Amino acid sequence: MSIVRPYGDTTGDGMVQVSFTLPLPHSKVAEGAAAQLAAKMGIDPALVVHAKPMGPDFTFFVVYGRVNHLVDTSTVQVVERDYPLLAPKEVNLAIRKGLRRRLVVVGGCIGTDAHTVGIDAILNIKGFVVNLGAQVSVPQLVARAREEKADAVLVSQVVTQRDAHIANTKEMSAAFRESYPAAARPLMVVGGPRFDESMADELGVDRVFARGTTPGEVASYLTHQLVTGRAAVAS
Amino acid sequence: MPPTRHMTGDVFRGYLLDAFFNLAGMLTGQSILLVGMMTEAVVTPWLSDRDLALQNVRYVMNAAGSLHEDFHPSPDGFIAQRARQVLAESIDLLERILAHEGRHGLLEAIGDGTFGLMKRPADAGRGLDGVARKAPGYFNPAIDILEA
Question: Is A126 part of the annotated catalytic residue set?
Answer without folding.
Answer: yes
